[in-house]
Every structure is written in C-alpha cells, then in structure tokens.
Amino acid sequence: MGVDSLGYVAFNVADFDRWRTILTQVFGMEPRARDGSDALDFRIDENHHRITLYPTGEDSVAVVGWEVGSIARLEELAAELRSRGVELTAGTPAQCKARKVRQLYHYTCPVIGCPTDIYYGPLVSHTPFAPSRGVAGYKTGELGLGHIAFWVKDLKATLAFYQEVMGFAISDYIAWDDNDAVFLHCNARHHTLALMAEAEGRPGGKFQHLMVESTSLDDVGYGYDIVRDLGVPVAIEPGKHSNDHMQSFYLKSPSGFWVEYGYGGREIGPDWEVKNYDQPMLWGHRMVGN
To answer: How far is CA 41 from CA 11, 35, 139, 142, 229, in A?
Structure first.
C-alpha cells in the first residue's frame, strides 16, 4: 500500500505572466494550453504535464497529485484513507480529463491541509518533450516529478500519517538553527517529501518549495544566470546539500514559496543508512542577504 511518486502539482497564481516566464525561460518547460480553460499545463518529460498554473488572482496550492501504480492499489489506499475518517470524492470524467489520468480520488490531506489527489494512469504523449529553451531534460520516470516541502503543525502526527498510510519511509533528518526537518522517500529518489516543524512566521500547512532535478549541471548553471538576468529574486545561492548531495539553487516564485533547481541528487538503495545532520549544506547554499 502507498504511493509510488509525486506525479504532478498545480498552483493558483496571481502573477500568471511572471510564472509563465520563469517556467519557460529559466526551466525550459513546455507550455500546453487547455481548450476552454485559462489554465496552462507545463511538460518536462513524456507525461502530458507535471505542473499546472491556474490564473485565479490568488496564490495557493491547487492540488498535489500522488501516483499509484495500479487500480487495485489505488482502491486499497482509498479504502485505508476512508477507514481513518478522510472524506474522498471520486474524480469525475471531466476532472480526470483535466488531470490527464485514468482514475483519481480527491481529498484534503488531514495532517497538512493541502488539496490532494491520488491517481492511476497518467497520459503519456506520443510526441517528444519540446523544451522552450535548450535543456537536456529532467530526472523523472519512476522517480516522479521531484520533491515538495511543507511546514507542518504537528511533525510527529504528519510523519506517522505519511509512513503508515501513504507508504513513505524516512531517509534522514536535519536540525539546524530553529529548523527541524524530516526527509521521506517513496521510491529511489532521496526524498519526495520534506516535512518541517512550524516556527514563527512559518505556519503549519504552508508550502515551502518544489524541487525539479535536471539531468545536466550546466542547465542549472545556465538557469541561475537567466534568473539573475531576469531579476527573479534568489532565496538561496548555489550550493550542495549535506544529505542528498543535490547541487542546486532556490528562486523565490511570484507566489512567495521557493522553487529549487537541482542536479545530481543521491538515490536510496538497499544499504541506505538513516542519518541525522546538523546543517543542510556541504558548501554554498547561503541565504541571500546573509
């Protein structure tokens, strides 16, 4: 039981044009318009899309989509969620068409509070990914879209839910300054979900960042140059993480949360040992302004 990967994320956004510029010019994502909708999908691999923007005039997470590899396991997970008092609604044909999946259930995560889908059968396009700038591509496939991070009100309860119900396992921990974070995997990607205890100015349920992983370090470097040329605010300068060894930088999105552009993350193997780190970086990754 449990999910296999982070399949997609969608955001309600106020500054739609700025978002589109960042996703196409910095990350080279392929935009795909929807018939009869103002929403815009973005592609980074063989899937129809991985990211969606809804120009709603507000900034929030519209949905987090977790992929499950079979209908039987999807139904098993849905039954487990219901047994724990989570109210699920089956996706209508129109909703499945919009998400480009065969079947889905929608609910509000009971511990984080974010709108959530569990789904089966993503649409794979017959045409190759056509990046909007010359990028080598992204590390996805069985590893999914990338990873996401949230601040949470009750770290212990949230950790228990994602382990016991959603099928995640602990990769490692980092505690530094006033931060307390747990990193979780559901496939070989070092972490697909990071949970951080809430603190002053960082309330539980708030989305912290999305990470996408390039297959080229040069693409990340070029992306950093483009970010600086476009005047996109940088949150964390280039560096290398202590736990997953990702080489990356973080930009501040127009919606306030961060987007991490990374390369070279470690993968979880059978001999993985959980560790507890005292800082998140090996080198670099300095907060801008510090």
So the answer is: 11, 11, 19, 21, 25
